[in-house]
Amino acid sequence: MSYQSSVAQDSLAAAQLEMAGNPNALALRRPFDPVAHDLEASFRLTRFADLKGRSCKVPQDVLGKLVESLQQDYSQQDDQFMHVAIPRIGIGLDCSVTPLRHGGLCLVQTTDFFYPLVDDPYMMGKIACANVLSDLYAMGVTECDNMLMLLGVSTKMTEKERDVVIPLIMRGFKDSALEAGTSVTGGQTVINPWCAIGGVATTICQPNEYIVPDNAVMGDVLVLTKPLGTQVAVNAHQWLDQPERWNRIKLVVSEEDVRKAYHRAMDSMSRLNRIAARLMHKYNAHGSTDVTGFGLLGHAQNLASHQKNEVSFVIHNLPVIAKMAAVAKACGNMFQLLQGHAPETSGGLLICLPREQAAAYCKDIEKQEGYQAWIIGIVEKGNRTARIIDKPRVIEVPAKD
Amino acid sequence: MSYQSSVAQDSLAAAQLEMAGNPNALALRRPFDPVAHDLEASFRLTRFADLKGRSCKVPQDVLGKLVESLQQDYSQQDDQFMHVAIPRIGIGLDCSVTPLRHGGLCLVQTTDFFYPLVDDPYMMGKIACANVLSDLYAMGVTECDNMLMLLGVSTKMTEKERDVVIPLIMRGFKDSALEAGTSVTGGQTVINPWCAIGGVATTICQPNEYIVPDNAVMGDVLVLTKPLGTQVAVNAHQWLDQPERWNRIKLVVSEEDVRKAYHRAMDSMSRLNRIAARLMHKYNAHGSTDVTGFGLLGHAQNLASHQKNEVSFVIHNLPVIAKMAAVAKACGNMFQLLQGHAPETSGGLLICLPREQAAAYCKDIEKQEGYQAWIIGIVEKGNRTARIIDKPRVIEVPAKD
């Protein structure tokens, strides 16, 4: 095809420059600088949408209402689904699981898309990809067979901005897919008022490759593999440019704190939950979900509601990116971070593990990844609900050096 | 789950009412009446986006430029792909085809989403589903193993509008999936300025279940299975409410003509290309694509560019929904319908067939579906391009009675 263009070539060259010739050497990569791409210094990707990241989710209760008609139908008609895979739209299990015509194989699939929440287009692509894959990992699936990419190009972008930003997003998405051992073979790009990024992840596997997340038992403990507070961090970072907002939080946090938290959040959101998923098999996990748009408690409640046994989840500890709990408090109840309702993007896995395995799980993941995981709660007898105790302990999670 | 709501129940009841208790009896279904759902009489679904249907596609040349970086990489690195399945994002083949770890099977996948172009939410859902599936059918794949639904709920909808419209869209999508012998097991719903609808279709199949669309030979003929002009029809219909627009076309078309064309377009867009795909195997098709956002010529050119043999496509006949060619002419060059550039949504398949099989193909599809297909052009020696002759014959396709 003959769609050559020197503009696209230039942005590609710039992208390669930023990656210092090694797409996987993230540490070596220089942060996105709009001026280096001939864009205005004030260019901010996050201004191309009014909502950020997974906070664009339709509220959990509204969504439940909207998809009700579909769910009723399925439960009456579709007996080809295993007991586990009650199909749900956007709520319920993280992936759909469909038995195939071909001997014993299952199709495990998920889709997700959302809006920019960091200003670095390459990182935004990586985060979007990690976020889509995370739904597979939450089911203990570690191999992805194929990915599709979904892109909305903002009507408000100039041609120049588009030609710089979109290839960088695509490249970030693709590099993350390569890191996950898969590749992007197609997708869809449309024009939309807001810039939007997402994808589809698909695996065909044997039933023993995924873990049905309904097997929590009394005495299990809950492990979380990434800190909370990504949404608070990306907002606080945006407020550095907005004096009236910044004034609300500057008494509790320094500019340097916010920058560190922002980078910790980017680092965390772009990290794959793949090793976390692999270790679920090794340490006999009883179920897991990933923490995204509905916040820690929303996802915990959803996981609890799917349990076979009469259990409930009680959360005692909240690992939060350093200083972000203080920022959230200074903003009144806006984020609901300590109440467990702050949306996260590409958050960690929340895993039910046998009590005697949990410490070993956390040790192993830290050894393999260099990132901590935390025991944050317990599974007790109950009516399939989840709650955070009155005064949870906040664990301040520092930025990595 | 306890997301019961009397509002959602009411809209469901209304939906069932409209379908006269039989979701497949489309003919019995009353058209969508906003007032019957307690919405304003002036409610129009198409007002929740500034672009319509597949015209939201990023222009073909721009997209080519944007995805270039990805394509370069794949052609260098990914040798696990068959010669056919050069992965492309949004352009190129209609589906991605990925060989699987499991003996001899392939993953065939596609995704698409766009904006409302008809005012009936249920029909909009059906059209969106037919449009997504159409990419599988274009590859000769007749079975779909799983679908996911993508939904953008407009920020501009009232709660009431949302609670009426979204379940109807979902139901239309689902009914179309059932008609196609598949089901919707998951998806993603986000808030977006424009209402958006789409999905993902996935099949796991043997390589003989799909038809590599690269085998056209000199002497083949081109068959089209649905009329052109859907975009013109939905625009003309919207102009019935807009006197200054209506005045531009009222000399060439009556209100009745426009209403008929609109219903013909809805009927056509919601019709599955499944039988067309099945018959491709029976009559030895050499390749096919579906006609959507890039218009007849755009997709023809794309198909031509993928051919193994040195061939070109020449199009002589343009079947167009009755009166829509006249409307397009009256609008100056706005639609570029007769130039082959008018976007279509959920258009027909454009199929290369051996000359001696083409008439039998057209006869068979008409017998099975009750809809005509047309021989519109020929395959001659050439440099893998496509063109429409200077004065193509316009075939007026009347609304069905």
Automatic annotation (TrEMBL), chains A, B:
Source organism (scientific name): Mythimna separata
Annotated PurM-like C-terminal domain residues: 219-388
InterPro entries the record matches: PurM-like_C_dom (IPR010918), PurM-like_C_sf (IPR036676), PurM-like_N (IPR016188), PurM-like_N_sf (IPR036921), SPS/SelD (IPR004536)
Ranges where the PurM-like N-terminal domain occurs: 94-197
Gene3D superfamilies, per database record: PurM-like C-terminal domain, PurM-like, N-terminal domain
CC per GO annotation: cytoplasm
GO BP terms, alphabetized: selenocysteine biosynthetic process
CDD domains: SelD
Source organism superkingdom: Eukaryota
Alphabetized UniProt keyword annotations: ATP-binding, Kinase, Nucleotide-binding, Selenium, Transferase
Protein name as catalogued: Selenide, water dikinase
UniProt-recorded Gene Ontology molecular function terms: ATP binding; selenide, water dikinase activity
Pfam families attached to this UniProt entry: AIRS, AIRS_C
